[in-house]
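Our consortium's second objective concerns turning raw sequence data into structural hypotheses that experimental partners can test. To show how far this objective has progressed, the report includes one record in full. It was chosen at random from the queue rather than selected for favorable results. The single chain below, 416 residues long, was entered without modification.
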Amino acid sequence: MMSNNPYKRGPVSAPSGRIKARTKVIVPLVLLLAISGLFGDRTNIGQRFLSEIRRLCDGYFRFGTWANLPETYWEELYKDVNNYIATDRDYPPYDPTNIGYALTLMSCPEDDYQPGVDTQFDPGHAFYDAAAVLKYSICHQTYPTGSDYNSTMYAIVHPDAIRCSGPNGETYDRVKVLTDLGYHVLIHGDPIATKDIQDPAVRDNVYDDAGLRDLMKLYAFKFDHHPAVVMVDFRTLMVDSIDTHLDQFIASDKQVMYTTHYPTSDDPTGRNRAAKTSWFMLKPDPNVLADIVDTYKTTSFNPDTSNHHTAGWDSSGVGDFPKQYGTDGILHYYYNTLNPDQIWKTDRCQLGNDNSDPMKVDSSGNVVCRDPYTCQDCRTYSMDTIQVAEMITVCGEPWKCYYDDNWDSNTKTGAA
């Protein structure tokens, strides 16, 4: 969608000619290799591979002239030349078949704002690559290539996350990168001020956890020009159509569809775990957003974890996990405790498969299920049963993954 808003522009047409044709063939291959590696013994996607993805995605999404600048850092093509001003709400018109996908950027990697728990998973110098691959993986599974549903990609960007530093110290404009890749960019500040938080446990500990800016993800509830919106992050990879889930969810009376992280304590209660916002589907409603924000401001938090059943938000047992003070924690409390009839809890192996081992060794040395309520082994799922993958387990985030000479030749071929 084209927009009059200076920081909101629609998809940029792919270049014509040889580069366009080559990229359309190879980019799906890049993603296929990445996906196949995710569910193998070792990952097939590494930092060398991302340097090739940059060239391919560049040809597909924007310039088509990168071959003439082989030694140029991509950041130099986005030097800081733009000033953005606040504008009125400017969204696409309502379309019952258009699904929103929302990525949130809270800071630059070099900023002083560094909460205790990472929730942005910033790819740094691989930012262009990661944003392009995320968008491509979603668009490739939506209309007209893989779905009856269209998609609009959003980036919710904090003002401090617009201008970041590249590897040579140059300042570059991340909003320009995102708009050139076809994201609809919305610039928002902190949704809650520290002074407005009533409980001192939340006020004093939030920055040692997810940080208040993590709550920017909640702005996805404002996008009520879509029948459904999905929160994603840079580690999310859509590998198949989610039409069946969309059909069922939109037709239901449920407000959200999500799965949870594994419990992190030896006493899993079914509540002491976080909602996974790397893939979290919701029916947008600004009134719900206001209610969640008010709940965050006014609800007490019990930090005493000696009894997992009474710890956390309003002593409900929703607590004692990373990001308990962030979006993951407040959403799980708001829905699991206050509005349990509004949740459609889904299969983590289908919508968010991260190839995790479902077993762990507890404090007594026993091998037990990490989640005794659903002791699924997502590693056994075949690819044709998985719709969304999360690239974190086998080799970490792809922009941090290297292979070495001990890897077998087939794996190295995929990553080279």
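The partners drew two points from this record. Residues 37 and 43 are 4 Å apart (CA to CA). Residues 1-56, 58-64 have pLDDT under 50 and may be disordered. Both points have been shared with the crystallography group to help prioritize constructs.
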